[in-house]
Amino acid sequence: MEASTSTYKFKLSLSFFFLFLFILSANVSPAIGRKNRIEPLANRNRTSPSGSRPQTSSSGLRTYIVHLHRNSATAAADDDDDRVVEWYKSFLPSETVAANEEGKKPTTSSPRMIHAYKKVATGFAARLTEAELEQIRKRDEFVHAYPDRLLPLLTTHTPGFLGLHRGAAGFWNDSNYGRGVIVGVLDTGILPTHPSFGDGGMPAPPAKWNGVCEFNASSCNNKLIGARNFVQGQAAMRETSSGAVGGLALEAPYDDEGHGTHTASTAAGAFVANANVAGQANGTASGMAPLAHLAIYKVCGEAGCADSDILAGIDAAVGDGVDVLSLSLGGGSAAFYSDATAVGTFGAIENGIFVSCSAGNDGPSYGTLSNEAPWILTVGASTTDRSIRSTVQLGSGAEFVGESLVQPSNYSSAELPLVYPGFVGTSDAALCLNGSLDGIDVKGMIVLCDDGEISRVAKGSFVKSAGGAGMIVASTESSGYILRDDVHVLPTSHVSYSDGLAIKTYVVSAASPTASISFGGTVFGAASTTPAPMVAGFSSRGPNQADPNILKPDIVGPGVNILAAWPSQVEATNVASSTFNVISGTSMSAPHLSGVAALLRSSHPDWSPAAIKSAMMTTAYAYANDGKPIPDESMSPADYFATGSGHVNVSGADNPGLVYDIAPDDYVAYLCGIPYNSTMVSAIVRRRVTCSDVSSIDGTNLNYPSFMVFLTAVNSYTAVVSRTVTNVGAADSKYTVQVVAPLGAASVTVKPTTLSFTEVNEKAQYTVTFVGNVTGTSTSYSEGYLTWISADGSIVVNSPIMIAVG
Ligand SMILES: *[C@@H]1O[C@H](CO)[C@@H](O)[C@H](O)[C@H]1NC(C)=O
Ligand SMILES: *[C@@H]1O[C@H](CO)[C@@H](O)[C@H](O)[C@H]1NC(C)=O
Ligand SMILES: *[C@@H]1O[C@H](CO)[C@@H](O)[C@H](O)[C@H]1NC(C)=O
Ligand SMILES: *[C@@H]1O[C@H](CO)[C@@H](O)[C@H](O)[C@H]1NC(C)=O
Ligand SMILES: *[C@@H]1O[C@H](CO)[C@@H](O)[C@H](O)[C@H]1NC(C)=O
Ligand SMILES: *[C@@H]1O[C@H](CO)[C@@H](O)[C@H](O)[C@H]1NC(C)=O
Ligand SMILES: *[C@@H]1O[C@H](CO)[C@@H](O)[C@H](O)[C@H]1NC(C)=O
Ligand SMILES: *[C@@H]1O[C@H](CO)[C@@H](O)[C@H](O)[C@H]1NC(C)=O
Ligand SMILES: *[C@@H]1O[C@H](CO)[C@@H](O)[C@H](O)[C@H]1NC(C)=O
């Protein structure tokens, strides 16, 4: 395809490609969130966005995740899986014992044990009555138990302009396209026959690979090296609440939703030429790490993802030998010891595995994050610089540039009467809901509809069946300037919230309002409608609820209008050719960063997960392609609770100069300092910890690549924190600090102000003293940054500073 298109277009389409794949449409995506009123599975009685604890059944059975200590007798069983499982079973009632108080027979013949954990947790998931759990609590080896919950997947939309160029010099070549690295994806499974998972040019998996392919043998290959299904907890929950009898037999890990196929291809899909949706965003699709291997762990089904299954998937992935874990799922904030993802991923990072997770789709409200543990890379979603233009021209001559994925080439762009049903009908009519346009004359007209409640594509179908000739969809206020590329059924333009207001003003004031829609195709860079990147309205925001002392999210990456692989048998709303799909969400941004982590793992095999994460964060950039600070969905500068350290800079992350490393053991002092008690810390780290014997630290003092500091009367408005950097750049190097203190809120003093190194991997420590401005005390947050700059200015190691005084 390089022969006929310019290199520029080719490069952009590569990176956009994957981003695009996920964008499909709200009503096929399992994403749900407070701000995302489109809940595709609502009619299946889906669970709440923050993750729901299922009801106890009539039989009194409920699924619990139980954490245990090994005692001296069981310690010997460490390496013997069968003996460990036997030990776990000793906690469970015999299968024939009646499960309810009335002494009736159990209403189900299914096994009580759902998962036996071996690597990242000592314990199991099982269906138990309250009374049985009480008995387990009395055993010496008991540590902690919590009820299973169902978490949603986190799809919404994406982009991609990460500067990875095929066949050229640069980071893709330097990192060998992720060759030999194994990316484990916990999601809805995969369509193994999709061209994105072909293995042309792929090496055999590394010798350490120890995984399993639950498809028939011919479906796995050197790209898709393993695939397993763990969706049991969900089935058990459903069974438990319905009381139905049924086995828990598992099928092969086919993707019935599309989500898992999309995320896997985004992280590590192969090059596929001529990928497009409805002819738009055409180009060569590829994952971020096209030569990395994929290992698939199906932990999510149509109802969501059970904590017990997620833990089982991570447990298996660690045993199988993956290098990177990608999780595009998450519930609301939870204490780390009662959050299976936090517990399981701690075991993963102890095994040197990098973990990238979605930040959540509950923005733009504050305090809406998922996956807040400091050992996880928490990834928010932003746009790319690709637009698929659909322009509205009003009778007044005013023009508004919107987007639509469907761009019929034979459309005549006639000027037609324009109507906003919200002015003549009910509030449902403003949203163009089913039936709401009855009795409103829209025949042959262009109809303005407000976004929300149902998918934009569905609104178009109702407008079309009411006789409408075209549609303009106005964004919600919380989506602002974020425009979505949907597969519309009639000529459509999705315009911003403010453009929607301007169009309504025109409809009110004009004697006979008219409009036309014209299509401008796929454009990139400065030609795109809005600056890029721009943080998506749906991208969840800090502050971190589980531990306010750690700034989250960590980073943003492409998550709006992302094109990636799609199983064609999954209904992709009106997509003519559904081999690829464009969808959006932090589900799309997390696998971009997983793929980037695979590239970094390949180019720096000796880096720890914390070092890779630090490299990504300290090199992230803060400015959009118009030279101004990265905006949020309302076009105001985005704050750190939206962007974290900024937008990933893939080539910058390859050469970060200094990294903030964290050893797994450092988290013990951190967890004791949250403060969690010894029991809870033990549940996470899988060994007996006595916090009183540990010199605990609070999150501000964890060696994190960003700063979140509270200055209050309790600490006399003063905090002294220390950090240790490790030189991963040139042996002889010198860095000088530059600090921009949060304006008017605090002073920031760094000691020393220069750091000199003579060796690679040499460490240096510095302290930062924060003194709050007491006269200005308010509980609001203020932002600054601290940057180490190399002597020649070529390396910039940046850390955001967020301060709360008061
Ligand atoms: C949801 O579940 C409730 C109770 O289980 C049931 O009454 C209702 O009909 C279900 N709704 C749908 C849409 O299935
Ligand atoms: C890619 O890297 C190899 C060394 O790993 C180098 O020999 C080759 O020239 C590079 N390719 C390009 C296009 O820069
Ligand atoms: C293996 O699975 C693929 C689809 O995943 C199917 O096309 C093929 O027929 C299967 N082969 C056998 C031997 O069952
Ligand atoms: C996509 O691009 C390729 C290469 O430029 C071209 O051959 C193909 O026709 C294009 N497909 C569409 C649907 O535009
Ligand atoms: C445009 O082309 C499509 C498909 O080729 C066809 O279905 C449609 O009727 C055409 N519309 C007009 C206005 O010609
Ligand atoms: C719209 O409403 C009608 C009448 O209630 C119903 O028959 C139809 O199935 C609905 N369509 C959709 C797509 O929900
Ligand atoms: C990304 O990092 C590279 C290498 O440090 C730098 O040249 C480039 O300007 C950065 N990109 C952005 C958008 O900041
Ligand atoms: C830790 O806290 C939990 C409840 O939050 C409690 O059940 C447990 O006994 C505590 N453990 C210790 C050692 O205090
Ligand atoms: C402290 O805050 C007050 C009130 O906001 C402001 O006027 C003053 O300039 C601040 N002082 C410093 C040193 O930042």
Automatic annotation (TrEMBL):
PROSITE patterns referenced in this protein's UniProt entry, alphabetically: SUBTILASE (PS51892), SUBTILASE_ASP (PS00136)
Domain Inhibitor I9: 63-151
Residue intervals of the PA domain: 415-503
Gene Ontology biological process terms from the UniProt entry: proteolysis
Pfam families with a match to the protein in the record: fn3_6 (PF17766), Inhibitor_I9 (PF05922), PA (PF02225), Peptidase_S8 (PF00082)
Native species: Iris pallida
Location of this chain's protein in the cell: Secreted
UniProt keyword annotations, A-Z: Glycoprotein, Hydrolase, Protease, Secreted, Serine protease, Signal
UniProt-annotated catalytic positions: 187 (charge relay system), 259 (charge relay system), 587 (charge relay system)
GO cellular component: extracellular region
The Peptidase S8/S53 domain, residue ranges: 178-624
UniProt-listed SUPFAM superfamilies: PA domain, Subtilisin-like
Residue ranges of the region described as Disordered: 40-59
Chain ranges of the Subtilisin-like protease fibronectin type-III domain: 701-803
Record's protein name: Subtilisin-like protease SBT1.2
Low complexity composition-biased segments: 46-59
GO molecular function: serine-type endopeptidase activity
Signal peptide: 1-33
Similarity comment text for this entry: Belongs to the peptidase S8 family.
